[in-house]
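Weekly puzzle thread! Below is a chain. First person to post its structure in token form gets bragging rights.
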Amino acid sequence: MERRAGIAFGILLACCPCASALDPSLDINQYAHTAWTVRDGFFKGAIHEIAQTPDGYLWLGTELGLLRFDGVRSVPWEPPAGEHLPSSDVRRLIAARDGRLWIGTAEGLASWKDGKLTHYAELDGRAVPALLEDREGTVWAGELATPAGRLCAIQSGTVRCYGEDGGLGYGVLSLYEDSRGNLWAGAVTGLWRWKPGPSKLYPIPDPEIRALIDGDDGGLLISMHGGIRQLVDGKVEAYSLPGSGRQFNANRLLRDRNGGLWIGTNDRGLVHVHQGRTDLFMQSDGLSGGFISRLFEDREGNIWVATPDGLDRFRDVAAPTISPKQGLSNADVWSVLAARDGSVWLGTRDGLNRWNNGQITIYRKRSSGLPNDADSLFQDDRGRIWVSTAGGLAHFENGRFVPISGVPGGVVHSMAGDGAGNLWIAYQDHDLFHLHQGNVVEQIPWAGLGRKDFAYALFADPAQGGLWLGFYQGGVAYFRDGQVRASYAAADGLGEGHVEDLRLDQDGTLWAATEGGLSRIKNGRVTTLASRNGLPCDAVHWAIEDDDHSLWLHTACGLVRIARPELDAWVADPKRTIRAAVFDSSDGIRSRATVTGYSPHVAKTADGKIWFLTDDGVSIIDPHHLPFNSLPPPVHVEQITADRKKYETSSSQRLPPLVRDLEIDYTALSLVAPEKIRFRVKLEGRDPDWKDVGNERKAFYNDLPPRNYRFRVAASNNSGVWNEAGASFDFSIRPAYYQTTWFQASCAAAFFLMLWGLYRYRLHQIAQRFNTRMEARVDERTRIARELHDTLLQSFQALMIHFQAVDNLLPPGKGKEALEKVLDRADQALVEGRNAIQNIRSSTTVTNELSHAVTALGEELAGSHDGETGPATFRVSVEGTPRDLRPILRDDIYRIAREALQNAFRHAQASQIEADITYGDSLLRLRVRDDGKGIDPKHLQAGRDGHWGLPGMRERAQQIGAQFEMWSEVGAGTEVELRIPGSIVYEKARGRGGLRLFRKKKEGSHER
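Winning reply:
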């Protein structure tokens, strides 16, 4: 996916090769310059060549190999395993339109595309110092060899070479295709026009032709050791640089897209020819080296310069600076004034400068009588320029400076006029002076205004006739008719610290630039715009409105532009956060913590340009023509590092298990201001949304779980244009064996199996404990039965024998008859005793079928008890397949059922009595309910005093491990429920089934 995105952006960049270009009116030193040097560790080896492929990368050919550069990082290019370039000394590079990078080395030619390195055996062992792709797509390679160098054409993989006859000498040093489609070759033997054929040789006095380029009026410029020549109408002529009579040992030539000519020299640095003038940029100006080996213009209009000591970039800026190199008398500019005639006046440490249509005039003491230092400036309603100096005050009139008497010299921080001939002058040490028509009319001490400090800024209000003053230690006052009419301080909402500038809108709104923000005063109300509202910092040096009514602020953090709708929205809601454009050092704006103590700090000329002070001159920004980079940057995911092992991103990767530290490197290719590129990243499979990571080009993740992931990255360029498609990379992390699904499923199954085993073991324990208790009960009953049989019954039997002997001795009569009756009753009692002992040893019920026993008991009770309304109706319901019960438990269950039924028949006065028996696999349930009078709640738990029915049922249920519950309400009947686990009560398990029996007894009749 990343590769497809790269191809798409390559097509986009190829179709629109330029985003902007350098302003041709500027000198080299007015562009933004950045240098990467060998001494800073940027690279190793001298750079011979520069090229840019469609994916946006800059490629640097050095004497030690090939580098890939994204504007921030240079990465050595590594060929595929087992392959290598013909030589590590890279002499020439070109990026073909199809994305192939052609690499000419000291010992042969190769090309690189889509991860494949191709060698061209026809050029092996030969230096390739010249490469060119013509408009037909043919790649031309010039080689150096002895005794004869060649010119080779490569098309569709086929190589065809020319020059074996020695006509090119020992080789070709340069190639160029002009605007008319002519192919030129600079050979040792001279200049060849190679095509269209037939080829033609133009003899050159100096055979070492280093570069060729389109010249003026259809000519061809030729760079050589002795300087620059021009081929016009088949003749080689001298070429003179405009504005310079010097010749340079030209090594490289470049014509930028605005027509400017760049010349790389052997010993004089960089020469720039533009709009009829020539300027230089040398090593002393900051160039990385004096010898220039390559010049290159990238797609965004940046100019790149390669030297043996480094790499330099020149790019356009939003606010270029005029400095002494453009003719100023001094770099210390203290004030700037835009005059009504279109000129701009600059007060400096060394004279007063006047800029007019690019020409600068300097006024100094020896030429104009003006002291060399020029401080604050002002233009009155008559068009006169007033200037304060250490020696006094003067105005410029009729080409001369006229000193003003009656006013002292000294530090003047500000001057202001009201359009009626009044001029106000704020001195630091000499109070506030008021002049009218050039004469002093009053001098007002600062103490008279209630101040211990002095005014730093003045602004006259022509509509009201008053004067606004901003003070050094903070605060703003309105002065009129000799009195302070209003004053504002930090307690009123004004920004704290120095008031450095005052501006008055046409609607009467006063703007005060302070160290604590930009304050707005209107109708006595003060609000302050500061960093809490979105400014990059609090300190504001000045404010000015442009022709579009946007407000520009110079802050300690850069230049800020606030559009008028955004400003009006803040005025309506001073708590809101504004959106503003910020221009910083990358735009040519130097941040300043303080400004000079003189005024004005800023001026707007009639063409709408804003002039403001910097540390090294005066800068100019044109709000109508701000540089804008419209090309969205190509985005690439470069590599992924897992636990310090690197993986390629050309295809999806399957990473090993248990990856702890994951690092993903990515980049975006905008070379104008790489430091202003902004990134958003998202790891699908982990991140719920995009994360803004600023300028960070690495993403870090720790302890990612095993799964499939997709890493996505989007980027914006220095102008905020986003490449929303961005780039993506798919990877996965393999699970460790214990992270696999089958392992986790096995663990879950083992866990549930263990729980089941524990559950079964617990049931076994409960059953064993219950069986032990039951066996103890059986043993106790057996012991009682044996004791009764061996003692009471045996003694009773012996007693009967004695009574029988006495009976035998008695004669017939009434006594004998009476004794025999007693003996008959004793025999009957003895039989009943034996039966009782037998019942103790075994079950008391006749049958093992609980339902039969309950039915028989209910029918017996129904037949012997009649309620107040007649006999009760009794019914038994059975659900499930009846099962054999353990005898002892069956007896206890029967006794509980008997007690419940006896209570229902004897005490409930019910008309309907039901018994439900449910045989479930895991539970036996017995339920007895009636519709009788119910039980008083106070007797529901313990029963009546002296009665043991209810407590007995609960005790029996507890003894056999059953749950006993009883519900009853007065007048609503009673329900008794007994639940016993099947594992305890059943003799053995049976299959599931269903049987439902109904038995009724009504008015003495039985129904089954």
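Puzzle host: Confirmed. Bonus trivia for everyone else. Residues 635-739 form a domain with the Immunoglobulin-like fold (CATH 2.60.40.10).
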